[in-house]
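Sample intake — Tryptophan--tRNA ligase, cytoplasmic
Collected from: Peucedramus taeniatus
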Amino acid sequence: MADSPNCDLKSLSPLQLFERVTEQGDKVRALKAGKAPKDEIDAAVRMLLSLKLSYKTTTGQDYQAGLPPKDLVLINNGTTEEEDEDLVDPWNVQTSNAKGVDYDKLIVRFGSSKIDADLINRIERAIGQRPHHFLRRGIFFSHRDMDQVLDAYENKKPFYLYTGRGPSSQAMHVGHLIPFLFTKWLQEVFDVPLVIQLTDDEKYLWKDMTIEKAYEYARENAKDIIACGFDVNKTFIFSDLDYLGTSAGFYRNIVKVQKHVTFNQVKGIFGFTDSDCIGKISFPAIQAAPSFSSSFPQIFNGKDNIQCLIPCAIDQDPYFRMTRDVAPRIGQPKPALLHSVFFPALQGAQTKMSASDPNSSIFLTDTPKQIKTKINKHAFSGGRDTIEEHRKYGGNCDVDVSFMYLTFFLEDDDRLEQLKQAYTSGELLTGELKKVLIETMQPLVAAHQERRKQVTDEIVKQFMTPRKLAFEF
């Protein structure tokens, strides 16, 4: 945004004001570092003070770097009833709306940008092929600075991908595949390096499990990730428990982030309390560090100016808002992000799935019979109470979990639209829609299981060994 003092600051939301103050602070620091003329620096400082005053007037809070407005992750769905609010943070997703979280409101509250038709068309022009159906269908719906990544790509400048997985259980479910399937596509069409962080340290700190079990889950999850088809010559998968002890660059970036984020800030961003262990408080810096290329000197030849693009579910955004605030202060480029919607539980879109509830999703270890039983028994229906009513009034695809799952996994756009029309009109019954989903998921999971069988411990070791990848920097 322009720094014009004529801008009507009263029209900005608290989050927009917060972003303006942050941007202006970055500008002041850059002007001072570049020894700009005194009058130019003074004007920028006056604008910064004006923005901070507007922020305090609007929010009742003093601006604190890295600490967005306190109501940032509480989204009201148009009512004043507490039970109608969406709660989104890295560990919880709750909504009373059967359609799921209101993502348009989440974009406004988080201050990200909607992935619109213009951006999708630009991606198509850049890569010379049709965009992934996750983009076409709004499954990846929000971004930060994707336009900058495309600028770099079009100007032959490098970038890299970073995503991750918190290994909380031995078996992953199909929802866990979403970021990896999309990241694999991004890696192939842009031909860039990829780093995948396994946060086994996080799961040890948050879950009731031993450190040995967390590490075991990380290696088991790595096999499922590798089975998605990643290229070992272009992909580095690492366990925090392993890599932190071997990479000076990684640890130095962690310490730099830690120095620039206060305890009050992480409490405000993540909701930590005085009773939380200090490991939780320091963990956000560990998730931030892979955003910087200098954390991987073996891949990037020690360069610290390679921009990072992070595909992730939007509940992980608080980590990277913090990271983006810190990055300029430690001389690093801000990571860009692509945010996905949440994958719904079989029982409905009100919550994320739980790895501890075997009936909340389809797991990658499920048999064809288990898949059929789970879908038939537990998949929330948007159909009517009776066949007669359904034929007359039709079903509701907005809340029907079988249709939601097909939106993720049925690649044929025409077929998906036919199913939507038939179900909405009442021509297609709930049982018939579930049958289509069963016939889609059974071969998909079976094929994944076959690929996973081919992933040996030696292959895992190859992916997880710090090394140079097939790129020159």
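Post-analysis note: Residues 14-59 form a domain with the Helix Hairpins fold (CATH 1.10.287.10).
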